[in-house]
Amino acid sequence: MQPDFVKIYRHEKAIPQYNIGHDRKLKTVDEMLLKYKNLYLTGNAYRGIGVNDCIENSYKLAETIIRKEEI
Q1: 58 pLDDT higher than 80
Q2: The model scores a pTM over 0.70
Q3: Which of 67, 69, 47 lies closest to 58 in space, CA to CA?
C-alpha cells in the first residue's frame, strides 16, 4: 500500500549554527563563571546544539557538581 500524496519539506537551516567567534564568547563566559562558586550553565547555547549533545553535557555537568560536593 502506498500513500496517495507525499510532500517532503527540507529545512536547510533547521539545526542552528554557532556564529563565528562563539568559542571566544564561551571562553569569556567560562572566565566570568569562575567568580561564582555554585553557578553552572549548560544547554544548546553553549556546547553542542543537538539533543544528544545537551544530554551528554548535562550528565558531565552533574558529575562535576557531585564531585565538588563530595570534597
Answers
A1: yes
A2: no
A3: 47
> Which residue type sits at 21?
G
Cα 47 off chain centre by: 4
| 18, 22, 37, 38, 58 from 34: Cα distances, Å | 23, 19, 7, 9, 19
Distance CA 53, CA 51 (A): 5
Encoded amino acid at 50, one letter = G
Is the distance from CB of 41 to CB of 33 less than 8 angstroms? yes
Structural domain boundaries in the chain: 22-70
* Interatomic CA distance for residues 64 and 24, integer angstroms: 23
Which grid cell sits at 13?
537551516
